[in-house]
Amino acid sequence: MSGKDPKEMRAATRVTNAGRRKEWTGPVVNAPVWRASTHLYETEADRKAAGKSNADGGFFYGRRGAPTQWSLAEALTQIEPGAHGTVLYPSGVAAIAGALLTVLRPGDRLLMSDNAYDPSRSMATGLLKRLGIEYDFFDPLDMPAFEAKFDAPVKAVWLESPGSLTMEVCDVPALTAIARQNGAVSLIDNTWASSLGFAALEHGCDIVMMSLSKHVGGHSDLMMGSASAGERWYRALRRTSQELGQVVSPDDAALAARGLRTMAIRLKQSSSSALRIAQWLAEQPQVAQVMCPMLPNDPRHELWARDFTGGCGLFSFVLNSSDPEASGALVDALNLFGIGYSWGGYESLALPIFPHDHRATMASPTKPAEEAGIRPAVRLSIGLEDTDDLIEDLAQALATMDTQ
Ligand SMILES: *Cc1c(COP(=O)(O)O)cnc(C)c1O
């Protein structure tokens, strides 16, 4: 390997090189799996010195990780523009908790985007509320309403773009600028785009979190999360994570690192396949609306094209039906799409969704404010199958709707 900093390389080169320090890989390509609780010291003086430093990449005890985890964390830092360091968590939800518990104290107020991932919302209304932290949901597309929320002090703003299920891209630089002017910390769930598709810290966010169970893992066989930040917040994240005893297994870290090596090419393939499928779906009479910011006629496409350098295979669509069972029947009729949670794997998935159940301030495309009825919707995670096979499968499943 050359001595070039992976941060200066293009995406596909970065993900293949990041984190592969010679001292961690030895003579082999990948950092081996270091299974360890106890780290042994040569002398008592060495043990004392290790205990004092708490530096990254220093042997101490299993809870602080070993080269397998350090290599993955460093790789994620190197692919995240503006990051000083990355903390790994046993799941994406654990990363959300770790980041919010780092920033918030009893009595603080949190503003959360109304289209945030449902467990993020539950964290605000449950765990954080029990700790005496106030929350308020906001419509990320309504700037005046967002600004008005700062009439009372705000400690942190939680963003997600595109939002879960309904896929609205928000103006992250504008929202984080308002937060900053008011002394609030901006955090973002960047699982959809990943650091390859959206440089969150360079668009105003202080802390960026990802569920690594999705694109980084990429094979639907591991749970992990991460939070990355500049130096100040990285130190704080790391301390909270150590206090909470958060640790990821070396086996999972090695799997995540393996997934990372192909992430750029997987994302490229699944985004172009998803875009073609979204375009095809938009023309089908059984489909009322496609929610995908990569589509040129999506209402938020311009913002997406301005701020993002890539997309992924995840998007949703609303059915032209008032039968609440129609989305379930449609996914049952599909042969190439698994029915299940998560996404970002090599295999395609389909999931009936009910976003109107999880909104406080935003009208949902599945329950437009002016309409009484509820429209069924489906979220697709497009994998690495041949796009034409997926379209044929969707076509035969949609055709069954006509005869119901
Ligand atoms: C899946 C997901 C998470 C949570 O990640 P887990 O690894 O499943 O805990 C967080 N945010 C978004 C947007 C997700 O889709």
From TrEMBL:
The entry's keywords: Lyase, Pyridoxal phosphate
Catalyzed reactions: L,L-cystathionine + H2O = L-homocysteine + pyruvate + NH4(+)
Record keyword Lipoprotein present: no
Keyword set includes rRNA processing: no
An MF annotation (GO) of this entry: cysteine-S-conjugate beta-lyase activity
Top-level EC class as recorded in UniProt: lyase
Positions of modified residues (N6-(pyridoxal phosphate)lysine): 214
A biological process term (GO) from this entry: L-cysteine catabolic process to pyruvate
EC number in record: 4.4.1.8
Cofactor(s) needed by this chain: pyridoxal 5'-phosphate
Family: Belongs to the trans-sulfuration enzymes family.
Protein name: Cystathionine beta-lyase
Organism of provenance: Erythrobacter insulae
Lineage, uppermost ranks: Bacteria, Pseudomonadati, Pseudomonadota, Alphaproteobacteria, Sphingomonadales
